[in-house]
Amino acid sequence: MARSAIPTRERIISAANALFYNDGIRGVSVDAVAAKAGVTKRTLYYHFRSKDDLVAAYLAGRDQPNLALFKQWFAEKDDGLPAQVERIFGNLARAARHPKWKGCGFLRTSAELANLPGHPAITIGAAHKKKFEAWLRETFTAAGIAEAAKLSRQILLLLDGSFAVVLLHRDPSYMETAGEAARSLIEAALPGRKKAPGARAVTKASLRANGSARSAAR
């Protein structure tokens, strides 16, 4: 599609998305966004009152596509809930191996705006994370998991924690390890999961042994 056929506002957001994600919010000027979008600075300010509004629009534009992609990866195979959630982590690990990968745009933006908790972009980023958590909670509830809210929060922590660690070390295998942990948590939470044979007996034997050892040490 020719640039002139794309609505001006969309061109500006597309330019902001590329620049903000690659270089950070504070590292990109409004002039740079206008130049990349092929518009004047005056035109940019006609569509966005301030850079803050532009940053908010940048994150808002990433919200639904990111959530849709997670759900797409999840639904690629009907191979069981643990594997479906783990696949999200696996696909993110593959994405992280691309040289242009710069982590989670929502988390990076929140870090840059940490001293501005009321910033509209922070609100949008927080809402995005809550939507993902809510989708997980609904999915876990439908699977009969009793503590679906707690589990969805644990998976979100694994996801965002792996974003941070992978960005720090530039090692996507941390994302895969987080996926394995998520799988284990979900497997343990699914209804009807049987305990390993002899687990109770081993526990009792261990307690008796520990008790005897304490008595002998007195």
What does it look like?
The protein is mainly α. The protein has two domains: 1-48, Arc Repressor Mutant, subunit A (Orthogonal Bundle); 63-189, Tetracycline Repressor, domain 2. Helices cover 74% and strands 0% of the residues. It is built from ten helices and no strands. The protein has helices at 8-23, 30-37, 41-47, 51-75, 81-96, 105-112, 120-142, 148-169, 173-189, 199-217. The longest helix is centred in the first third of the chain and has 25 residues, at 51-75. The protein is elongated and about 60 Å long. The N and C termini lie far apart (83 Å). The model is unreliable at 195-207 and 213-218 (pLDDT under 50).
Summarize the topology.
Layout: H1 8-23, H2 30-37, H3 41-47, H4 51-75, H5 81-96, H6 105-112, H7 120-142, H8 148-169, H9 173-189, H10 199-217
Helix pairs in contact: 1-2, 1-4, 4-5, 4-7, 5-9, 6-7, 7-8, 8-9
Summarize the structure.
By secondary structure, the protein is mainly α. 74% of the residues lie in helices and 0% in strands. The longest helix has 25 residues, at 51-75.
What order do the SSEs take from the amino end to the carboxyl end, as H and E? HHHHHHHHHH
| Cα gyration radius (Å) | 23 Å
Molecular shape? elongated
Oligomeric form of this entry? Answer: single chain
Classified by CATH, the class of the largest domain is Mainly Alpha
Largest sheet: none
Termini gap: 83 Å
Strand content: under 5%
Question: Considering DSSP H and I runs of 4 or more, what fraction of the residues is helical?
Answer: over 70%
> How many helical elements?
10
Contiguous runs where pLDDT drops below 50 for at least 5 residues: 195-207, 213-218
Mean pLDDT: 90
- Looking at CATH, the homologous superfamily of the largest domain is Tetracycline Repressor, domain 2
What name does CATH use for the topology of the largest domain?
Tetracycline Repressor, domain 2
Number of E-state strands: 0
CATH architecture type of the largest domain: Orthogonal Bundle
